[in-house]
Amino acid sequence: MWNVLLSFSGLVALIQLLFLPFFPESPPYLLLQKGDKAGCLKAMKQLWGDGNYQSEFDDLMKEKAVTKGTKIMNVLEVLKEPSVYPQLSIMLLLLLSLQLCGLKIFQTANLQRSIIPYVSLGIAISELISIIFCSSIIDRFGRRILLWGGYLLMALILVLLETSLLLSGQFLWMRYCSVILIFLFIIAYGIGP
């Protein structure tokens, strides 16, 4: 029944994808990243209804003034910062624990048991790459575009994955397509949602 469970997550992603265009960008993102004051106020009214949000807007303006002199760090600078080591340790622990999740799919794809640990290691590496890549492009493209693209790619990949798993008994090379699609799914998830 794992394929039903996998389809359920695809259904939830599809529902989110359908409703995403109707939500505004985050007010802090619009003001702090884009510098769009009018868009920020419009998003506040759209999210919270009619009202006076001048105090919240003023708080965001104060935050913008405080962070104006702050240097935005790139990924390598963040990795060199000792204050983030506890958070990085927790993230790496989570990434390592997630490696057990795909074993059933790999067994269903009839992969040899001897290569499953290497595939799991590859998944961990692709997760790490997608996280680093996402953190470097999120300010350039914005969350909305990354969410849209990520969910669209994930939906397409899930359809292809289900097809490849169904055909893996008939065509030997489909097993490896399944593994590649799992890597792509994880990268799409890490970059988008």
Automatic annotation (TrEMBL):
Keywords: Membrane, Signal, Sugar transport, Transmembrane, Transmembrane helix, Transport
GO molecular function, one term: D-glucose transmembrane transporter activity
GO CC terms: plasma membrane
TM ranges: 115-138, 144-161, 173-192
Signal peptide bounds: 1-17
Membrane-topology descriptor: Multi-pass membrane protein
Major subcellular site: membrane
Compartments reported by the entry: Membrane
Organism, as annotated: Mesitornis unicolor
Sequence ranges assigned to domain Major facilitator superfamily (MFS) profile in this UniProt record: 1-193
Pfam families: Sugar_tr
GO terms under biological process: D-glucose import; dehydroascorbic acid transport
Keyword Flavoprotein on entry: no
PANTHER family noted in UniProt: MAJOR FACILITATOR SUPERFAMILY (MFS) PROFILE DOMAIN-CONTAINING PROTEIN, SOLUTE CARRIER FAMILY 2
Domain of life: Eukaryota
Designated name of the protein: Solute carrier family 2, facilitated glucose transporter member 9
InterPro entries given in the database record: GLUT, MFS_dom, MFS_sugar_transport-like, MFS_trans_sf
